[in-house]
Design brief:
With 167 residues, this protein is α+β, with helices and mostly antiparallel strands. It has 6 helices and 6 strands.
Length: 167
């Protein structure tokens, strides 16, 4: 099964976590663990409680289908997910080796217009239909609360694979 950059990016669009006391509106929390990220998300008023997942692991570190490490911790929250990646620039660099697998079809799809929230050491994406965010926690609110920015998947592709912007 061919693993494309889109597949990696979709799985990878989540967080890595510092102390929940450091989470303040408009400041990147720099979480260092999934526990602190969950606490930080909850402290900021968004739903990331284990009780809402009945039977599903809340923190995932490997692809359930392949058992391959994800390269970070994926945290499932209410309507969105956070992927802790350590350093975002190093994470983007690790994905750049998959640039040649990106197809014209992927670049032309509506999926590349999806909003992704990017912080210094995390990526967030929605888990609703077409990876939408919950109405009570739109991407702009999540980004503002954590000092992150909203980007499209296409802009992330263009950052990771500069040659894509020239096609």
């Amino acid at each position: 099964m061919r693993r494309t950059l889109a597949g990696v990016a979709v799985i990878a669009l989540m967080v890595t976590g510092c102390s929940s006391n450091d989470v303040a509106e408009g400041s990147d929390p720099g979480w260092v663990s999934s526990d602190s990220a969950i606490a930080g998300v909850n402290d900021a008023g968004f739903d990331c409680s284990e009780d809402s997942f009945s039977g599903t692991k809340q923190v995932i570190t490997e692809n359930p289908a392949t058992e391959e490490p994800l390269g970070g911790e994926l945290i499932l929250c209410g309507g969105f997910q956070v992927f802790l990646v350590g350093n975002i620039d190093e994470y983007w660099e690790s994905l750049s080796s998959s640039c040649s697998a990106v197809t014209e079809e992927e670049l032309a799809s509506e999926a590349v217009q999806r909003d992704v929230i990017v912080g210094s050491n995390f990526v967030m994406s929605g888990t609703g239909p077409d990876q939408s965010y919950p109405d009570e926690a739109p991407a702009s609110d999540l980004a503002r609360a954590f000092g992150a920015e909203v980007q499209t998947l296409q802009s992330i592709y263009e950052t990771i694979c500069p040659e894509i912007g020239n096609t």
